[in-house]
């Protein structure tokens, strides 16, 4: 039972990785293994640190506050992407796939880990196994980012064509709103 709880906990804290991966895939941006592992490493590290320091952090930043910050950042990125789609409305999807670089992966890893601060604190208060949560967070981050990126780039992304920035922006706004109203 502890494994199932830890797995559900890790999946719920990394669902935004799927949306981000999908969003990048729709934009024809590939997230290769190394950048994906960097994102997962940062996410797992932040989750681990927030769990270890969970008792001390509870009086500095609440789960709701960290969730709200992450939501606002996602909504902002989504609105920027939507605005970009209208300013570049003649842009079409090209066959040349762009790859996410190391700097962008670090930034994305930090962004995706903001929500995990509150989740990690909650996990430490709930007395979940810190090592198991960290390992599962790393693994689910990689898998969900890859799956979202693959689906966005290879399946659905081909159908969306010139609307890729608009769709990815809408997904980010929806992610931000859902995470704002339905924080774990």
UniProtKB/TrEMBL annotation:
Q: Name one Pfam family in it.
A: Mntp
* Keyword Oxidoreductase included in the entry's annotation: no
User: Which UniProt keyword terms apply here?
Assistant: Cell membrane, Membrane, Transmembrane, Transmembrane helix
Question: Which parts of the chain span the membrane according to its record?
Answer: 37-57, 69-88, 100-121, 128-146, 166-183
Q: Which InterPro entries match?
A: Mntp/YtaF (IPR003810)
Source organism, top-level taxon: Bacteria
Q: What is this protein called?
A: Putative membrane protein
